[in-house]
Amino acid sequence: MAPFSLVTASVSWLAKSFSVFSSTSTLARCTSVLPAAYVNPVRCLTSQASGPPKRPLNGYLRYVLQQQPVITRHNPEIKSVDIIRRIAQQWRTMSPEQKQPFQEASLQAREQFKVDLQHYQAQLTPAQVQQQALEKRQRMAKRKAIRKKRELTNLGKPKRPRSPFNIFMSEHFVEARGTTTQAKMKSLLEDWKNLFGHQKQVYMQLAEDDKIRYKNEMKLWEDHMMEIGREDLIREQTLSTKKKPAAKRLAAKTGPKKAKAVKKATATGKSKTSRKTAKSSSVKTARTTKKT
Fold this sequence. Notes:
Blueprint: H1 10-16, H2 26-29, H3 36-39, H4 43-46, H5 59-74, H6 80-93, H7 96-122, H8 126-154, H9 164-172, H10 181-193, H11 197-227, H12 236-291
Helix pairs in contact: 1-5, 5-6, 5-7, 9-10, 9-11
């Protein structure tokens, strides 16, 4: 799915370089050689003067940029999602020879991107390099957190309990004062502060009930995670409480056997020592009798 933010003003002069053709004749026209203005690396789509160069588009996205304004002009009533679906279907049915001009243009833009990137990095100071590395780590951490949250949502993790103010805000958000979300939240916060204690007590009780709901749902969810082998998603305090009964049960099972083994080892040890002492005493008496 191609992002529509890529379809900017630069698409207009790309579309003008192609003749208008219908969707039935699209595949036949794709085999022709593309104009040089399209095949050559398009710097306005891959780089910025004030910042680092942007990564070039792949062959499919270049095809989308070419076809999207054409299909929109011929079918203005079609939704954007349907336009992308139609373009994707056309791309899937194209042969490798038909895709080759777009892919070659992408390869050329990629080579130009490498040159632009090296030129840009050579102009950076050590402080700017460190700042970029820090920003990259922050972006990676943010992406990892988003993927983690999406995974937990797909696994059905219960929602955290709401605070009393959150419950109050959700009930009165529609009739709150203000035109923007920020203004409404500000007015609701002021109303919450002006509530009497007995009025807030209602929402506090609802929040306590929500905590009980969350606790019960989390217990069932974590038991299910244990069953499917996803202990990495269980809270540490829950794991510790689950391990203690298991350790006690294991100790209860192996306890009598270990006690018997210890008693047996002790008995055999005592018998061996008694045999050694008896043997040594007999040897000593034999030596004394020989001397006499």
